[in-house]
Automatic annotation (TrEMBL):
EC number(s) per entry: 1.-.-.-
Highest taxon in the source lineage: Bacteria
Gene3D superfamilies for the chain: NAD(P)-binding Rossmann-like Domain
EC class of the enzyme, as a word: oxidoreductase
Protein name: SDR family oxidoreductase
Length: 230
């Protein structure tokens, strides 16, 4: 039986690179994303057939999360979940509209919590693994940056969840990357100068956590490109 993995925010960047790596490793992979066209375009280029499922929807919507988990578990027992969906706003806290702030907090904080709530019962059954993709911005404060605040909250969710489920045999890993060359920067004026990792670099860290032997749990991986100071 092929392992079954759910990835949120899987149509591009780290999520897409992780999906590609897991498909090559022999997983069946289900991807969520808010843009059906991006999901369809990604799937069309993979040649994965029935091993790849796309599930358009917003992870800050509890009903969408519930539908996604029900869909993927039709394949069988859910063994891995990668919580990757999230976004940042250009400018600083002082520039954001309340509406944009609300959307980012829902996606970056509520969304992961909803995914955890929905998936943990399945991961307890499979003694599976949960990976949450945070950021070095969740470990080092960035002044006037609400995205950083949301990532601190995500890091807290990771440890909170680990404490709650480790006795049930569920592995929980926080992967906190530094600067990564992904579409994350598209609405922020492009990738800043200086060293950057690739999405595949971070995907390799996620696979390292997922591929640990039973009984071994990597709790946190904080990774930066060589040369990144903060």
């Amino acid at each position: 039986m092929k392992p079954i993995t759910l990835i949120t925010g899987g149509s591009s960047g780290i999520g897409a690179a992780t999906a590609q790596s897991l498909l090559k490793q022999g997983h069946r992979v289900a991807l969520t994303g808010r843009d059906p066209d991006k999901l369809a375009a990604f799937a069309a280029n993979q040649g994965a057939g029935s091993d790849l499922m796309t599930l358009p929807g917003d992870t800050s919507d509890a009903s969408a999360v519930s539908r996604a988990v029900k869909s993927v578990t039709q394949w069988g027992r859910l063994e891995n979940v990668v919580v990757n969906a999230g976004f940042s706003l250009p400018g600083t806290l002082m520039d954001h509209t309340p509406e944009a702030m609300h959307a980012m907090v829902l996606t970056n904080v509520l969304g992961p919590a909803l995914v955890v709530r929905e998936c943990i019962p399945h991961l307890k059954d499979s003694r599976g693994r949960l990976v949450l993709v945070g950021s070095v911005a969740g470990a080092k404060h960035t002044p006037n940056n609400l995205y950083s605040v949301t990532k601190w909250a995500l890091h807290a969710l990771a440890e909170n969840t680990r404490l709650a489920v480790t006795a049930d045999g569920v592995g929980v890993t926080l992967v906190a990357p530094g600067k990564v060359d992904t579409p994350f920067w598209d609405n922020r004026g492009g990738l800043p100068d200086g060293p950057a990792m690739s999405a595949q670099d971070v995907a390799s860290c996620i696979l390292f956590a997922l591929n640990q032997p039973p009984g071994m749990d990597i709790n946190q991986l904080q990774v930066r490109p060589v040369g990144q100071i903060n």
